[in-house]
Amino acid sequence: MTLTSPSARPPAGPPSPRVAGVDHLAFVTWKPRATCEFYTEVLGMPLVHAITATGWVTEDYPDFVHFFFDMGKGNRIAFFYYFGLPEEEPPSDLMHRSRHLAFHVDTEEELLAWRDRLKAHGVRVTPPLPHELIESIYFDDPNGLQLEITRPLRTMSALDARDAELTLRALADVAESPRPGAQALWQRKAELVRKAELVRKAARVRDDKEVTGP
Amino acid sequence: MTLAVYVPAVPEFAPVVRTAEAAGMDVRAVGDYLELATAEREVVLRREVTEMPTAVWHAALTGGLTGRIVSFTPRILHLATEDHA
């Protein structure tokens, strides 16, 4: 993401390196049996790799098992089980809802089929909830990790990216202000929208002059 | 200053535009956005005018606001110019 002018050019030099999606996401579990059963039998994600080792990473690192399930498209979800590690308190409701993992399906039929499958396995799952661009169902894994399965309601467009650019510019300004808040963000966003329109109009006038000449 | 709301010109925000029109606001295109504006010093948008997902209603101001929020509930969005008491 750049928060500079869209016309700003990257510095010359070798091409920037790019990552190719997710290799794995890692979480911690205190319930290895339930976790393995949930991911393989309910979600149908094969167990593809497991490491067992002494805690070599730091001086007080516990001995551990690190195991991986295949989420598809080369993406894996992994868990650490640490021997002797006291179980953590569950997160607040807000953090539980915020830190989640969403799986993608293409169609409404697939979303509803997943809902049926989860219910058939006794998993508590929400009805489909439409957002702006996606519609989702939500449920928890045995560790209390919130999972989501989502389908697109429409394709993301270049307009969405331009809008996001203005939103994040407004947020960066407002978050550093004495009184950040949604209203301040929306007021700053309106200023940026109008400014972007003035810039667009000025560019159009300039282009017209170039075409018609002096 | 004019009271105005900006919504991205994308399908999911069409119900917000219809709700604003029902409240007497004027609509014009401004780049990637639709500007919903009124010369009145305050306006009340009512969600019941259209069927709109909860998430979209609560994101109705995501494109920007010239003015201030008097009240934003699950049913109404009451806006006023910044200088209107």
Could you characterize what this model shows?
The complex is a heterodimer of chains A (214) and B (85). Helix content of chain A is 37%, strand content 23%. Chain A is an alpha/beta fold. Chain A has a 4-stranded mixed β-sheet with strand order 1-4-3-2, covered by helices on one side. In chain A, helix 4 crosses helix 5 (182-212). The radius of gyration of chain A is 24 Å and the shape is elongated. In chain A, 11% of the residues are buried. The model of chain A has no long low-confidence stretch (mean pLDDT 92). By secondary structure, chain B is of the alpha+beta class. Chain B is 15% helix and 40% strand. Chain B has helices at 14-22, 54-57; strands at residues 3-8, 26-30, 33-38, 42-46, 65-66, 68-72, 76-80. In chain B, the strands form 2 sheets. Chain B has a 4-stranded antiparallel β-sheet, with helices on one face. In chain B, strand 6 and strand 7 (76-80) form a beta hairpin. Chain A binds chain B through residues 129-133, 153-154, 157, 159-160, 162-163, 167, 170, 182-183, 186-194, 196-197, 200, and chain B through 4, 6, 8-12, 30-33, 53, 55-56, 59, 61-66, 68-69.
Going across the major beta sheet of chain B, what is the strand order? 2-3-1-5
For the terminal residues of chain B, how far apart are their CA atoms?
14 Å
Number of strands of chain B: 7
Specify the CATH homologous superfamily of the largest domain in chain A: 2,3-Dihydroxybiphenyl 1,2-Dioxygenase, domain 1
Strands of the biggest beta sheet of chain A: in what spatial order?
A: 1-4-3-2
CATH structural class of the largest domain in chain A: Alpha Beta
Structural class of chain B: alpha+beta
Organism (chain A): Streptomyces kronopolitis
Pfam family, one (chain A): Glyoxalase
Domain VOC (chain A): 21-152
Protein name (chain A): VOC domain-containing protein
